[in-house]
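Note to self: keep these together.
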Amino acid sequence: MAKKQEKEVTVEEKLKTLYALQQKLSEIDNIKILRGELPLEVADLEDEIIGLETRIKKYEAELKEADTAVSNQKQKAKESGLKIDKYKEQLDNVRNNREFDHLSKEIEFETLEIELSEKRIREFTQESKNLSEQVEKSKSFLTERSADLAQKKEELDSIVAETKQQEEDLRDEVKVIEVEVEPRLLQAFKRIRKSARNGLAVVCIERGACGGCFNKIPPQKQMDIKLGKKIIVCEYCGRIMIDPELIAPVE
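Structure:
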């Protein structure tokens, strides 16, 4: 009889310990809820800023190439102009029609080269203008997003500063409680908690129903839960169920 009583107390203590563990972990969950989506928002903004900086570098490299291309085409047009002047001077001293035709063709060719260079200069100049606008827009957007990141970080740092010590204390308490739980039961508890949408692995029965999924519990099982002689899980959601009267002192 003494051994039976000892066993009942042991199971009851296990349930109380699991409930206490659940309470501490729920407090940590509430702290995370308080921080909300801020950590994800900060990470997203950081990634976006890296992307913007990469894009700006790309635009600036393309802008440099366009400006170089404009300079090259201007130099090419200048060289063609010098050749035309030279050929025109030579026209005054031609000795026959053959030389005249040759020089005329050279002048015509260089004139076409100048027209082509001028066309390319207009194209590269427009491209350079478009790239300059893109760089300015991207830099302006980068400034805005950097300001947003600074604000979000400040908000997150403020919340973390307020709750950091509290969270650390809770995690220390969790470690102490976990030592009291046998490994297999602790592993099962963590598995249930991980699969539960609200992180609750241990729930009270409420009005004859599971406090996790709210499905009705058969009367006999309700009695077993109330007696606290064994650990019982909900057949629907898999959560460990406990009688409210059992954990009243814990709360």
